[in-house]
Every structure is written in structure tokens, then in C-alpha cells.
Amino acid sequence: MLARHIMTSPVFTVPPDMPVLEATRLMKEKNISRLPVVDKGKLVGIATKDRLLRAAPSNATSLSLHELHYLYGKLTVAEIMQRKVVVAKPDDTMEACVRLAQDNHVGCLPVVEDGRVVGILTTNDLFYVVMNPILGIGEGGSRIAVRRCANAGEIGKAIQCVVDMGLDLTNAAYMPSRRGDEKDLFLHISEDNPDKLVECMKAKGLDAEGRAR
Q1: Helix-strand-coil split of the chain, %, nearest 5
Q2: Rounded to a whole number, what is the largest CA-CA distance in the chain?
Q3: Global pTM?
Q4: CA distance 30 to 107
Q5: What does the pLDDT read at residue 55?
Q6: Segment 12-51, tens digit of pLDDT
Q7: Are strands 207-211 and 34-39 parallel, antiparallel or unpaired?
């Protein structure tokens, strides 16, 4: 899966001379938290909800309320935006994008192609488009967790139970746990009751349990 398959596009962008008040209103209207800042077609920064909030007037000042609102009204996006922006390319893999975001401690990656912002990739995109299908979140049916599923042989036993019972396997995930080197296998079937499948796996010596989605 590539960035172009996950990113939100088209993306709302703003010019650097846009007043912060206007950018704040745009974020509220569109229910977004980040705005790439574009000048003459080129990405020059990114404005986030956190930066906009930090720029808002504070009570810890000797200025009058009128003076505060006057100064805040003249503040532009260019004055509060983050200028160093980590970007992705449309053909970057999902894995590369996740690693890039984690290495740079950022919550979003504007996606740039030929110098133009063509989309934006956020942690929400990764959760909804990638993690939700893997974990079966929001889908019907049931989920089976096979704990300490250590090798391909044990994975094969679990899958064989699904095959032998003629069940529909919607998705599967094999992930390391936080218990050290152990790994867990998660299977999702379209049937609502996983009890017989769990019994089959336990009969093969697997540590299986049914879980609600």
C-alpha cells in the first residue's frame, strides 16, 4: 500500500499571509487539525491546531483586551507556522511513511509530487485505512486470538481449523506482543460465534480465545 492510497486528497492549504483568525475558523469549519502553508505553489510550512492555540491571547499580560485582540487579529500564519516540514511522496510505501513519521516525531506528512502538495497523510489515516481493516474494527463477525503462536507450523494449525470448518476468513494479523519475543496471531471470521473454532484450535494445542470485535 502506497501513500497515494491512504492520503487525504484534495487537501486544504493556506497562504502564509492568511490571518491566524481565519485559519482557525477554517480548521473548525472543516474539522481538521493541520493546514499545509503554500506560497506560489510551493510548500513553505505547516500550521497546526496546537500552534494556533499557543498563539491565542493570554491573560498573563499587561496589555488591554482591546490591544490583545488587535494584535492577534494582525497575526498571520507565516508568523506561527512550522517551517521545517517532513514530507512524503505519493509512491512511498505505507511502511516507509510510518517510519518517517516516527523517526521525526510528527503526526502528519504532507504528500508532495513535483513540488506540489497533492495530499496529506495523518495518524488517523493510518488507523482508519490500515489498522482498522487489519484488526477488523467496525466489522461484523468475530475475532480469535492465538497467544504465543511461535512459528509457521502453529499458524498453519490455526488456519487449517478455519479451512476444515469451512469458515470465511476475512483478515489475519501476526504481531509481536509486549511480553518479550512472543507473537500473537489474530484471525477474523465472518461468523458471529467463534466457539467451535476455538475448540478446534485448543484441540491442536493452541492457546486460543474468542474475542468481540
Answers
A1: 40, 30, 35
A2: 76
A3: 0.70
A4: 18
A5: 66
A6: 999 999 998 888 899 999 999 999 999 999 999 999 988 8
A7: unpaired
